[in-house]
TrEMBL record:
Residues 209-338 form the 3-dehydroquinate synthase C-terminal domain. This is 3-dehydroquinate synthase. Its EC number is 4.2.3.4. InterPro entries: Dehydroquinate_synthase, DHQS/DOIS_N, DHQS_C.
């Protein structure tokens, strides 16, 4: 073939199809006394990868945990010194105030990033995040965005963090008045649940995490919901054995969904594990986070179950059993902010924010029966307003029966 040098060759640039299959592996461990020097779990996890003999690590700790576990800093230092052939703790731990407030401050992210740079962590180093779910979210976001990802070991210290927020693949902070507006999908290197941290929780935090267990039971496991209903008294009286079983099964169901739903990074517009959460997230914001996350979820569950009942999906018997169980655990269903339900009212902005967060069409999970769900793409706001009224009257009737 003769090519004329005075003519440019014509090239048909076809698309280059790229596929990058990625598999993430991480273990969720259950233990007691994680930082006792004779407990090798943490050290073994750090040296599982032998690319470097001695690993570097920093710790970020929830200040609320330190209030109740005053020897934690010493235990952590003693543990590091005892296992110095495996890892070294560089710098003093960073202490941050726990609760949702920590996710509202960009300065905290900057300070963690600055500390990572100062001590010279690399991508094969570790960040230990010790605290409740909000602190884990904050530190997870910082870890995922430094060096495009430093290994994160989550050490959840609340029921809610051990059975839900601390075991998944999401990290995030709040911005523009919206929960988790900034965030990443970045699985942790490992999750270490130390049941001993639960002994010092106040009753609100003890109870709050049970809401997520009820949520996942309602949408996935009727037998698990029955277990919770049977052992309400033991949970209220803080029976550790029953709570540990609730945490384990709840974590198991969450992890199964993340791994097997076909959408672990939520690329679609459906998110069943957020049953009851569109209202919960909005109520947290409306109350300036006076509500614990689990308390807001309990209200959101009650609201969506009531809507499911009034819509003809859920039987009255199942609806009553759900509300009775939530009430027996000590959850309140009605707060004044729930009544902000005009057509463009504050509460219903949660629906548009929920849709915006996921993209695509609105997708809400409703309950068809305990353990079985149905997704809908449209809702009747008048029916939701009625649901709020029904909940308010249900709470009033329970109070009247209590004092009659």
């Amino acid at each position: 073939m003769t090519i004329r040098i005075d003519q440019k060759p014509q090239v048909d640039f076809q698309p280059i199809h790229q596929s990058v299959p990625i598999t993430f592996h991480y273990d969720v461990h259950f233990t007691r006394g994680l930082f006792e020097t004779n407990n090798p779990l943490l050290a073994k996890i750090m040296v599982a990868d032998r690319k470097a003999r001695i690993k570097q690590a920093i710790a970020v700790i929830d200040s609320g945990v330190l209030q109740h576990h005053q020897q934690l800093l010493k235990k952590l230092q003693d543990y590091s010194e005892h296992h110095q052939n495996f890892f070294t703790l560089v710098g003093k731990p960073i202490i941050v105030k726990g609760g949702e407030e920590c996710k509202n401050s960009p300065k905290l992210i900057e300070s963690i990033h600055a500390f990572i740079d100062q001590v010279g962590l690399c991508r094969h180093s570790y960040i230990l995040a010790i605290g409740g779910g909000a602190v884990l979210d904050l530190v997870g976001y910082a870890a995922a965005t430094a060096h495009r990802g430093i290994r994160l070991i989550r050490i959840p210290t609340t029921v809610l963090a051990q059975n839900d927020s601390g075991i998944g693949v999401k990290n995030g902070v709040n911005a523009f008045g919206k929960k988790n507006f900034l965030g990443t999908f970045a699985p942790p290197y490992a999750v270490l649940n130390d049941f001993n941290f639960l002994t010092t929780l106040d009753d609100r935090d003890w109870r709050s995490g049970i809401a997520e267990a009820i949520k996942v039971a309602l949408i996935k496991d009727a037998d698990f919901f029955e277990f919770i209903s049977i052992y309400v008294g033991e949970l209220v009286s803080r029976d550790r054995s029953i709570m540990e079983q609730v945490i384990y099964r709840c974590a198991q169901l969450h992890l199964q969904h993340i791994a097997n739903s076909g959408d672990p990074f939520e690329n679609g517009c459906s998110r069943p594990l957020d049953f009851g959460h569109w209202a919960a997230h909005r109520l947290e914001h409306l109350t300036n986070y006076r509500l614990r996350h689990g308390e807001a979820v309990a209200i959101g569950l009650a609201l969506d179950c009531t809507y499911s009942y009034l819509s003809g999906l859920l039987s009255q018997q199942h609806w009553q059993k759900i509300l009775t169980t939530l009430a027996a655990l000590g959850f309140s269903f009605y707060i004044s902010e729930l009544g902000l339900t005009s057509y463009n009212g504050e509460l219903f902005q949660g629906l548009s924010e929920f849709q915006q967060h996921l993209g695509g069409e609105l997708t809400i999970t409703l309950l068809q029966e305990i353990g079985k769900v149905r997704e809908v793409h449209q809702v009747d706001l008048k029916c939701y307003q009625l649901s709020v009224n029904v909940l308010e009257n249900w709470v009033k009737s329970q109070r009247e029966n209590l004092f009659s």
